[in-house]
Design a protein that fits this description.
about 45% helix, globular, alpha/beta, 8 strands, 8-stranded mixed β-sheet
Length: about 350
């Protein structure tokens, strides 16, 4: 039988955030975080992120450390608007016809199809020998890493990347979270060269953890973990085209590590509930999730590379709506019990 905790009676509720990767769909996470910060009833104790989740984690962490909730909301807005502005200068943005016909999913974009084909024929080392990465400039413009590291009141921050040579997950934390670490976490191998840090080369963190939960467990602190999920687990039908099969195979890969961690968390929680583990020595985690599976699954995977401002704002508003629903339904659960049935959702 699940053991409920005694609720905290005063102050905001402490939560740890786990932010998934998924390209431009990270604007959904932006909307979720914006509404949680606006609500004012949560204290962000720690953040872990992979890929665009790492980007959101760095922007959020910097904003909270240097300007509190209001500063974090403003900084996230600035980052995503700068992302859209930078994207207008790139060659592979959707045309007006794309927007009208595909609502931003770029299915009809000939330039996207060209870029997608080239990425399968030529590596980033051949297509982009100068290693130009717009994310580097965006991070330098928006995130003050030195100020974030110097602050004493920000959340703990973790971002993850995949070691190219041995396949191991690398978790960067504290002062290790630099622009290079964030870029490593978001380095999709068919788009960007591997990022070298201290003699090691890294690709996108989503391959090994999307995102990893264990850093939030090992750090101690509160029991509540809120996963902002942008990589759908469930889809409506079996993929039958070559493009759809490749897309879903990649999604399965990126979700697999999270689902394995959820199984382990469920196993330990059951042992605690049955009294086979001492609850005074072992923490029973309280798991919460915010997602938009049905809505995000309706988009083609190419939409993850669409940084058109209208599309980003659409996802932002969707995130706010889903976060508001979570607050209405589950705010009282935070600090007391899990609001997500792990077995039903992940196992």
């Amino acid at each position: 039988m699940t053991q409920d905790r005694q609720p905290r009676t005063t102050g905001p509720k402490r939560i740890k955030l786990a932010l998934q990767g998924g390209g431009s769909h990270g604007a959904f996470t932006w909307g979720v975080l914006d509404r949680l910060l606006e609500h004012g009833g949560f204290e962000v104790e720690a953040i872990v992120g992979a890929s665009v989740g790492a980007v959101n984690a760095a922007v959020l962490g910097c904003g909270l450390a240097t300007g509190g909730a209001a500063g974090a909301r403003a900084l996230m807005q600035r980052f995503w608007h700068c992302t859209a502005e930078a994207a207008t200068k790139g060659p592979f943005q959707p045309t007006m016809l794309d927007r009208l016909m595909g609502k931003g999913n770029m299915t009809f974009s000939p330039m996207w199809r060209l870029a997608d084909t080239l990425s399968k024929l030529l590596s980033p080392y051949e297509l982009n020998p100068a290693n130009i990465n717009p994310l580097r400039d965006l991070l330098a413009e928006v995130v003050d890493f030195d100020a974030m590291h110097a602050a004493t009141n920000g959340p703990k921050l973790f971002v993850c990347a995949t070691n190219v040579l041995n396949g191991r997950l690398k978790v960067f934390e504290g002062r290790e979270v630099t622009a290079d670490a964030v870029m490593a976490s978001a380095a999709l191998p068919f788009m960007f060269q591997a990022v070298e840090i201290d003699g090691h080369h890294y690709w996108d963190g989503g391959y090994c953890g999307n995102p990893p939960i264990f850093p939030l467990i090992y750090m101690g602190g509160g029991a509540d973990i809120l996963i902002v999920q942008i990589s759908p687990i469930n889809i409506a039908e079996v993929p039958k085209t070559a493009r759809a099969i490749l897309d879903h195979a990649a999604t399965l890969s990126f979700n697999s590590s999270l689902m394995r961690e959820m199984r382990a968390i469920k196993f330990v929680s059951d042992l605690i509930d049955r009294g086979e583990l001492d609850s005074n020595k072992h923490m029973r985690l309280l798991i919460h999730t915010i997602d938009a599976e049905q809505e995000l699954a309706a988009f083609d995977v190419s939409s993850k590379f669409n940084a058109d401002l209208g599309f980003l704002l659409e996802l932002f508003e969707l995130g706010r709506v889903k976060a508001n629903a979570f607050i209405d339904l589950h705010y009282d659960d935070v600090g007391v019990r899990s609001s997500t049935d792990i077995a039903a959702k992940f196992l």
